[in-house]
Each structure stands twice: as C-alpha cells, then as structure tokens.
Amino acid sequence: MIDVLVVGGGISGLAFAWKAATAGRQVVLLESSPRVGGCIYSHSSKDGFWFEMGAHTVYNSYGGFLEMGNATGACETLVQRGPARSQFGLLRDGAVAWLTPPKVLLHLGWLEAAARFPFNVFRSKEGQTVASHFSRLLGPKNFAQILSPFFAAVPSQSADLFPAAGPGSLFKKRPRRKEIPRSFGFHGGLQTVCTATSKVTHLSVHTDSAAMTVARNSDGWQVRTHDGRVYSAPLLAIATPASVTPALVDGALPGLANAIRKVETVAVESVGVVLPRDRCWMPECAFVVPTDDLFFSMVTRDPFPDPDRRAFTFHFRPGISREKKRKRIVEVLRLRHEDLPSTLENAVTLPSATVDHAHKVAEIEKHIPDSLALVGNYFEGLAIEDCVGRAFAEWNRVGSTVPLLED
Ligand SMILES: Cc1cc2nc3c(=O)[nH]c(=O)nc-3n(C[C@H](O)[C@H](O)[C@H](O)COP(=O)(O)OP(=O)(O)OC[C@H]3O[C@@H](n4cnc5c(N)ncnc54)[C@H](O)[C@@H]3O)c2cc1C
C-alpha cells in the first residue's frame, strides 16, 4: 500500500518524498526520465569524470538541502570549491575581461552610479522589477551593460522583468552555516545528493514512468502512467515543472490548471563539452557571461579541477539550431571545428517570474485541495533551496492527512 505518491523526481519531488519517507510513510515517486535530479544533472563518464549540465552552485545558506545531504550521507563527499570559484569572464565584442567580484565594480560608470546611489539606496524593492530597481540605484547604462548580463546568467534567461523582492525573486537572505564553506560541491556533482535521497528507506523510485493523468476518487488520488499503470494513494504530491503540471491536473482540478498556466516559462538548452586540458586557451574560471549573445552563460568545472580534462557547459537561448550552437562553442573555446568532440545536450524549462508573481502564487494556492501537495520552482523562487523550502513547508501542511498506521 502506498501512503504518498510523488510525481516528478527533481529536487522538489525528492525533498518532499524524503520528508514523507523519513516520517515513516510508504512513498512511491514517479519520474519520467531515466534519472532523478531534473535540473540537477551531473553527467558522469564511465571513468568517473563528472561535470554539471544544469545547476552548479550551492551555498552554506542552503539549510534544507544540507539537511538532506547530511541525513542521506551525501555530505560525506562534500568538497570545497577551489580558487577558480571567484574568477569569471565578461565577454563583450569578442574579448573577455577577467574579473573577480571586487573588480566588477571597476567596470561600472562611477559618475552615473554616484548620481543615483545615495538618493535611492534605502528605497524599497517592493513592486519593482530587477531592471527598475537596479537602474534607479546605479543608473540604466550600468544596469544594461554590467548587471543585466550577470543577473541573466542566474536563471539562464533575461532577469530584467523578474521581481526585485518577494516570491520569484533571485535575491534571498538566509542564515549561513558557518562550519560549511560558503559555496561547495560534492564528489560526483550535485546529483550525488539526489541519488542518495532516492535510496532512503520507505521510498521506491520508479524512473521511466511518465504520469499522464491525475484523477480523484473516494480514497484519494489515482495517477495513470504513459504505459497504462495506475497508482493510488491518499496523498499526492505533484513536483513537475510549471510547463507540465497544468495538463496533468486539468481533468481533476481545472481551476488549479488555469492558475498555474499564468506562470510563464522558458526553455533552457544546455550543451556540455569536455576537452583535454592542453587544448584549452582559457584561464581557469567559474563561468563566462556574455553581453547579448546566443547563450546566457558558460559554466566550467574548474572550481573542482581535474589534472587532465576541463568541462564547459553553455546555457543557450531556446530555439537556436545545433549547428549555430556548435559554431558559437567553437568560437568561444577557440577550437577548429573538427576538434570539437561530441557534445552532450539537455533541455529543461524554468519559470519566468514577473513583478506580479506573488499574486499568481496566491491564486494557485487558493486552488490546492488539502490532500494534494504542490511543489516546484514556481513558488518561492527557482534556487534549489527555494524548492526544498517549499517541499518541506508542503509536507508540514499535508503530512498529517496520512497518519502512520500505529498512530
Ligand atoms: C541551467 C540551470 C542552472 C541552474 N543553476 C542553479 C544553481 O547553480 N543553483 C541553484 O540553486 N539553482 C540553480 N538552478 C535552478 C534549479 O536547479 C531548479 O530550479 C531546480 O532544480 C528545479 O527543481 P524541481 O524539482 O522543482 O524541477 P525539475 O528539476 O524541473 O524537476 C521536475 C522533474 O519532473 C519530471 N517530470 C516531468 N514531467 C513528468 C511526468 N509527466 N511524470 C513524471 N515526472 C515528470 C522531470 O523529468 C524532472 O525530473 C539552475 C537551473 C538551470 C536550468
């Protein structure tokens, strides 16, 4: 018998499943792809060389994520990021300026910033977009030329119209765990935490199992998968992306489906390439951010250096042909076309929060019934810790609806 059924095996679904399983419930998680992790995707070759195709950086302020890592044993493989973590490139007009966090400030137009900063520094971010808030603070030219490309690298899309504060914003203050390095990784990549979580007691993960429909019955919920299997449970958690969830719940909860549809989403198309170290011209760095290019960022594995190989993952705008992507990779990495090895490709969708995101979330919340948990990166924000926080809060809200048999 299943107590809790979870659909979607990214960090949101795994965090919810982990909470339910550690509270003694029998949990089944359905994941459409062959692996868990979703946007967390550490690709590993047969000899163990790994690199991040998706999310890459976690911080000591990610308390919930660290709690999962500790409890599942993943934190035993925690590794500190090396010096390349604080080197990055700004690619403009074919040239890369190599920067460290304080050097970025030297690229600001100081006259423009000084004319605005003192008058706006204490003004509220409420109701402001990222563009309006930072343009007011440092000037529109500084925002467009320096800040906008760096902010776009975070959600792999323009962040100009994201809210500057509240649900959906990129900026959150969370308490730091000082005994852990400020930013860190895991041997094998962030995927290590997802894989370890998928193996906890009371949790059974079914990969290659795409949920197609969700229905309600007198005992709770029924989920039908692409191959005709039917799963039933009194409590259901839906942890699929905002681009997928409306179609899943439309039959059972049309109001909820319509509310989620109001959240805009974009595709992120990532291409990863591994090169022998002696073929790389680029100094070691954490990432390169271009101004106005086919890609939003190129993230490296250099903070976890390997003696022989380096890896580069380009996060492209959607809809660009494979040939154009490869041509741009060859240019940035300064390779001959015939020297570009085979690449790895992945596509996901992310929400595009807008300044009224809090209203959209409130509307969604109104339509969630008591025996359904709805988790994902379209509530608090898209950071891994936002997803974990939402999953934990949802478990606290609905967990008691499936009492332990011995209760
Ligand atoms: C390129 C990139 C870089 C990022 N970098 C960072 C970073 O450095 N730090 C950070 O904190 N955050 C980062 N993020 C954001 C963060 O990784 C994501 O917001 C978060 O991992 C999303 O988790 P999720 O579980 O909500 O969704 P997802 O990861 O999208 O998981 C949803 C899961 O549902 C599955 N699914 C879909 N349809 C079905 C179905 N019908 N049936 C069953 N399963 C289904 C999918 O296969 C997927 O596994 C990054 C995101 C991207 C794309």
Overview of the structural elements:
This protein has helices at residues 11-22, 63-72, 101-106, 110-120, 130-138, 140-153, 191-198, 245-249, 254-261, 322-332, 357-366, 384-398; strands at 4-7, 27-30, 42-44, 50-52, 58-59, 78-80, 88-92, 95-99, 183-186, 203-206, 211-217, 220-225, 230-233, 235-238, 264-276, 287-290, 295-300, 309-316, 344-352, 372-374. It is globular and about 65 Å long. Strand 11 and strand 12 form a beta hairpin. It contains twelve helices and 20 strands. It is of the alpha/beta class and 407 residues long. The longest helix is centred in the last third of the chain and has 15 residues, at 384-398. Helices cover 29% and strands 25% of the residues. Helix 1 (11-22) runs parallel beside helix 12 (384-398). A seven-stranded mixed beta sheet has the order 8-7-16-17-18-15-19. A five-stranded parallel beta sheet has the order 10-2-1-14-20, covered by helices on one side. The chain has a three-stranded antiparallel beta sheet with strand order 5-9-6. The protein folds into two domains: 4-77 and 187-263 and 354-401, FAD/NAD(P)-binding domain; 82-180 and 264-352, Polyamine Oxidase, Chain A, domain 2. The chain binds flavin-adenine dinucleotide. Flavin-adenine dinucleotide (FAD) binds at residues 7-13, 30-33, 38-40, 54-57, 156, 210-211, 239-241, 244, 268, 270, 315, 348, 350, 376-377, 382-384, 387.
